[in-house]
Every structure is written in structure tokens, then in C-alpha cells.
Design a protein that fits this description.
The protein is an all-beta fold. The protein is built from no helices and 19 strands.
Length: 227
Amino acid sequence: QDDRNYFFQDKDNSLYLYVNVGTTTSDVIVSGVTIYDYNGDEYLVISGSDVQKVKTGIYKINLTIDSATFPDAVLFTDKWTVIQNGKVKNIDQEFYLINSQNYFSFSLDNRLNFDDFYFTYSGIKSDENLKAGTVRRINVKVKTLYSQDNNLPLDLDYRVFTTQSDKYQIDIIPFTKVDRTSNGYEFMLDTTWMIPQDYYLELRINNGDQFATKAPINFTIVDNGLL
């Protein structure tokens, strides 16, 4: 859950580094991260031991910025120092401070209206035939209806299910968190263990103890490309 696009003051945020060689994620040694404020002054140095490896080629740090110390609507820089193939490299990234009042609320103003959101998939098509063993990166595109701005990160899950008769749904992949990266929302769909048959893919948007399901599509796993 990458907070780079939703870095609210006064709360713990996670910032990620993604390392790719070509189109493949690749491990490096992260020796440290230095945070610079909007004036370019050094704010914090994070040692390599405090950098968490999430999975292959993906690393994160946790960071809180106090609103009493810094204004909002300014850019900070996170400089990651990594060692790749014996060479030291610096990777500069940026994040934007958002006023904590947009996140913390003592009224009902921050409740989501589920009807304001529309979701579409890329990486898979409705009614698509997928050859057994296919692994797809599925991107979820979020559109806000009625030109309303959404300043809050969304909490999304996905599930894959099949049906038995007209009454029963059988979870193949129960509701699982959708990754929130600096480029949007995505997850990997691995069909290597799915038998040839029809499946359904469904999203769920969560807001505390409230939720709504969205954007169901169906697809078919086929054996050796044949129905």
C-alpha cells in the first residue's frame, strides 16, 4: 500500500522503491534512504537496516511528517542509495505533503459514496479465453463520477469465484487486497492452478465496516488454448 500519492501529515505513511531490470523485478542492496524537505535541507537519514523488503525488487520505508513543523502542499524528496551489481546508485523520488484535515475527520464528511466510483480493468477483457497457466498483471482504473475529487486512498479487494447451478458461488481466490502502487491499483492474476472452466472476477470497495462490490467480469480458462 504505497502512500506516495496520498502522503498525509501526522500519520504513518509508507514509501516504496520498485527496482526493475528490463521488465523483471530485481533485488538490490538498499544501504539507506535520505529524506530532504521542500527547501532541499536534510530532514532524516534512514539506515538500510530500517528498510523493509516487501518482495523481490520492492522495498519500503515508513515515515511520519508533523504538520506543526512543516506546511502542507510542498514537495519532499526521498533519495534511495542502492548497490546493484557492485555499483552504488542514487534514486531520487518525490512525495507531496497533504493536510491532515483531509484524512482525519470528526464528522461524516469523509464517508465514501460508493455510487461515485466506477472501475474498469486493463490486462484482462470480459469474456476473454485465457490459456491455462497464464499470469496476468491486472490494472484497475478508477473513475470518479460527477467530477468529484477523491483525496483519499481507496481500500480495494478482488476475488475470483465460480458458480454451481444458479444459487451457489464458490470462491477460488477469496477477497484479497489490491496493491496500491505509485502508478495506481493493480494485482497479479495467476491461473497456473485453475482448471478449465468459467470464472468471475469481482472488486470490492471498503470504507470501514461498509463495503460494496463493483465491476464483475467473467473469463474462461481453456486447456492448451482450446475450449
